[in-house]
Predict the 3D structure of the following.
Amino acid sequence: MKSRQSSEPDELQAFLLSRQQHAAANEIDWGERRREWIDAVEQLYRKITGELLAEDIEKGLVTVSRGAKEIKEEYLGRYRAPELILDISGQTVRFSPKGRNIIGAKGRVDLVGALDAMTLILEPTGHWSVVVSRVPRHVVSLDRRALAEALHRVMR
């Protein structure tokens, strides 16, 4: 058996080094993912309060407040996420983040009322949708009409 005197990597070592570099290049920055997720939730709340319900808030039909909840997710760890709370004629509904690591979506926020809960998902394309039914899967883009239907389902 010959001993290697050269500092050049052999074929196997070159392969192993390339795999190590590939793994390092594909490493996920989970802290950045968490920040992006919280930013996306804040963007959702701005859309709801600054666009979809802006006129209703101005007229006093909806009162808005904020809260926070602690979430624990695999890879993302423990973190605090904002909640949006709406008071509509004495009834409270809450937009409550469930998590970032969701199969088939980039995140999930539940709309929770006295009667039921509905799921909002952050689509891979970056826009928010309301899950109308899971089986068969039926989602609609979040707009005033979809929000009205979701509120109708979750409120008394």
